[in-house]
Design brief:
Elements (H helix, E strand, L loop, with lengths): L1 H6 L29 H24 L2 H29 L6 H5 L21 H6 L7 H20 L9 H23 L5 H22 L14
Helix pairs in contact: 2-3, 2-6, 3-6, 3-8, 6-7, 6-8, 7-8
Length: about 230
């Protein structure tokens, strides 16, 4: 997982042609994003891992349960990373702040479409990253990790049982709310279009649900708190 983050900027990515006067990619560049990469790692990796460790070892005290729970989390994050980075490098969609990164020298008359050669910015990483808008990695990773934690907690508190107290619902909703806030921040930071965030969130949530169900029964099952044998 760490290797994917390290190598991804080094892999040549497809760069779409773009209009130098497109308002959709003319937003300012945010030098201090609301959720930096280190914070994303903390929220999507450490928080779910720590919470699962606490619940599994404090209440169940069974290595089998802990092993299955963590394995599901890591699978969710790994497959999300694979899907996200493959799409980022093959789609090549410009970010909303591309022109601020590019600092283009626009010729006269203004062409309908241009390529990256028009950019005056010398920072190659900044330019390459400007074409990795789809899908949102922050959104996919946050839902892959925190979404998995939400499904796990829903099973552990047996959320769908009759007369479940409201505080259990709040515990389950908290990870999903955190993931949603991370995803929305990418729109307000002008790092992603809303569709990038929507698809990224769907990728992460789908992987989280799939790998949770690969390791645990459905949340509505009478034995939802125990992993498969």
């Amino acid at each position: 997982l760490l290797l994917a983050f390290i190598l991804e900027p080094l892999i040549p990515a497809f760069k779409r042609h773009f209009s130098p006067v497109d308002p959709e990619i003319s937003f300012p560049f945010a030098h201090s994003p609301a959720v930096p990469v280190i914070s994303l790692f903390f929220l999507s990796y450490f928080v779910p891992f720590a919470a699962i460790t606490l619940v599994a070892l404090s209440f169940h005290r069974r290595w089998h349960h802990y092993h299955f729970a963590v394995q599901g989390l890591l699978c969710s994050l790994a497959f999300t990373a694979l899907i996200t980075h493959v799409l980022k490098n093959t789609v090549g969609r410009p970010r909303p702040d591309l022109l601020a990164r590019c600092q283009p020298q626009i010729p006269e008359p203004v062409p309908i479409l241009v390529d990256v050669s028009i950019c005056q910015e010398q920072n190659e990483y900044l330019i390459n990253d400007g074409f990795k808008s789809f899908p949102s990695g922050h959104s996919s990773y946050s839902f892959a990790g925190l979404g998995y934690l939400g499904f796990y907690l829903a099973g552990q508190v047996r959320l769908l049982r009759a007369h479940t107290p409201p505080w259990k619902s709040l515990i389950v909703l908290l990870p999903f709310l955190m993931a949603l806030l991370v995803a929305v921040s990418r729109i307000s930071d002008y790092r992603h279009h809303w569709s990038d965030v929507l698809v990224g969130s769907a990728i992460g949530a789908s992987c989280a649900w799939y790998f949770y169900r690969r390791h645990f029964p459905a949340v509505g099952s009478p034995v939802c708190s125990a992993p498969y044998a």
